[in-house]
Design brief:
The chain is built from 12 helices and 14 strands. It is α/β, with parallel strands linked by helices and 384 residues long. It has a single domain (2-374), classed as NAD(P)-binding Rossmann-like Domain (Rossmann fold, 3-Layer(aba) Sandwich), CATH 3.40.50.720. A 7-stranded parallel β-sheet has the order 3-2-1-4-5-8-12, sandwiched between helices. A 3-stranded mixed β-sheet has the order 9-11-13. The structure holds nicotinamide-adenine-dinucleotide and sulfoquinovose-uridine-C1,5'-diphosphate. Sulfoquinovose-uridine-C1,5'-diphosphate binds next to helix 8, strand 10 and strand 11.
């Protein structure tokens, strides 16, 4: 299939593009490379040294003989987007191309506005471009488990059946997101759902949990193919950050009590879930939702697992409880369903099996590149 990976220079997108290319799909990458600029503006950098996208793609072709088309441009620019789609003619679009950091979206008004415009307008443009030229194309859109928040009942996959005053309906599951970034994903979901309904488009919203790990078969083939690994207080995610903190002897930065429970998955499962979604497309007019995660952990449990893994490597790992810079429940019920992808054949990696290979070894290998000034959180959710 011809698959366009939007955001294919990023963490999930790069691993996905190579995996799908290796599996024989005809892959294109569309990216405006803005993530590299945001890092520079914040003075942060990936732990792993990533090559320019053109060099990455050249190396992939040298190693495997497989070509990846590259479209450098912004999906909020409609004429660029529609031209790129007409040139590539995708059968499926995998859309990772958004500003994805909750702390970035909470820096100030400008960053909140930028995040929502970038994400919501970009996705809306894709929907219009599909309606105009590719109404049969399947949109596989990366949403997030954080759209749901932490309700005191079980989280279903996108929809919940409710009985009210003697009548019953199946409705979109209520959303209570925890940042302006997470809210942008909710707005996207509503727009995609509506576009499927009125234009008969087909879409799968993958409500993904927090992704961890850096190693995949493809990105591990060569140093020039290495994936990014963020550890800073803005773009670094909890588990990736903890492993790097352990490697440099920094106490693990658990925010508050650490009772926040989240959904997680290995990056090797991310790429497999995308493959499953594109190989089993949604029906025309259907807005399908899958919860894309494999395990649930509290942040405190993660810290203990990293401490244990660190100890096995001879590291002395301490756990700190910082004042929580976010406004979130630190102790709550959290139980989410994730059977749709498992039913379609996903075989999850377990964190307990992959912590060392997929993360700790990378953290230790590249620890000399860590900028210790970037570890502690600097963005607060609260009024000053
Ligand atoms: P990333 O920042 O590493 O990659 C995003 C890519 O999209 C970057 O290369 C960036 O340049 C590109 N991009 C952003 N805006 C664009 C635009 N307007 N036009 C063209 N390209 C644009 O992020 P990631 O961690 O790979 O996340 C990818 C997607 O998965 C995001 O939508 C994110 O919300 C979602 N997601 C990520 C995680 C995670 O833990 N990393 C978890 C759940 C969901
Ligand atoms: N946390 C800590 N210490 C840290 C970093 C985070 O305790 O050093 C806590 C946070 O307070 C939060 C939890 O860990 O309770 C998760 O935070 P995170 O930064 O790992 O993840 P989050 O901000 O939710 O965002 C990440 C990705 C985002 C994706 C989301 C999936 O950046 O793109 O949408 O994970 S989910 O969380 O399921 O919504």
């Amino acid at each position: 299939m011809k698959v366009l990976v939007i955001g294919g220079d990023g963490y999930c997108g790069w691993a996905t593009a190579l995996y799908l290319s290796n599996k024989g799909h005809d892959v294109g990458i569309l990216d405006n490379l803005s993530r590299r600029d945001w890092d520079s503006q914040l003075g942060v950098n990936t732990l792993t040294p990533i090559a320019p996208i053109q060099k990455r793609i050249e190396r992939w072709k040298d190693l495997t003989g497989k070509n990846i088309d590259l479209f450098v441009g912004d999906i909020t620019d409609y004429s660029f987007l529609s031209q790129a789609l007409r040139q590539f003619e995708p059968g499926a679009i995998v859309h990772f191309g958004e500003q994805r950091s909750a702390p970035y979206s909470m820096i100030d008004r400008e960053h909140a506005v930028f995040t929502q415009v970038n994400n919501v307008v970009g996705t809306l443009n894709i929907l219009y471009a599909m309606k105009e030229d590719f109404p049969e194309c399947h949109l596989v859109k990366l949403g997030t488990m954080g759209e749901y928040g932490t309700p005191n009942i079980d989280i279903e996959e996108g929809y919940i059946t409710i009985e009210h005053n003697g009548r019953t309906d199946t409705l979109p599951y209520p959303k209570q997101p925890g940042s302006f970034y997470h809210l942008s994903k909710v707005h996207d979901s509503h727009n995609i759902h509506f576009a499927c309904k009125i234009w008969g488009l087909r879409a799968t919203d993958l409500n993904q949990g927090v992704v961890y790990g850096v190693l995949t078969d493809e990105t591990g083939m060569d140093e020039l193919l290495i994936n990014r690994l963020d550890y800073d207080g803005v773009f670094g995610t909890a588990l990736n950050r903890f492993c790097i903190q352990a490697a440099i002897g920094h106490p693990l930065t658990v925010y508050g009590k650490g009772g926040q429970t989240r959904a997680f998955l290995d990056i090797r499962d991310t790429i497999r879930c995308i493959e499953i979604a594109i190989e089993n497309p949604a029906y025309a007019g259907k807005f399908r939702v899958f919860n894309q995660f494999t395990e649930l952990f509290s942040v405190g449990d993660l810290a203990l697992m990293v401490k244990k893994a660190g100890n096995s490597l001879g590291l002395n790992v301490e756990i700190d409880h910082l004042e929580n810079p976010r406004v979130e429940l630190e102790e709550h019920y959290f139980n989410a369903k994730n059977t749709n992808l498992l039913d379609l054949g996903l075989q999850p990696h377990k964190l307990s099996d992959s912590l060392l290979d997929s993360l700790m070894n990378f953290a230790t290998k590249y620890k000399g590149r860590v900028d210790k000034e970037q570890i502690l959180p600097k963005v607060s959710w609260r009024r000053k």
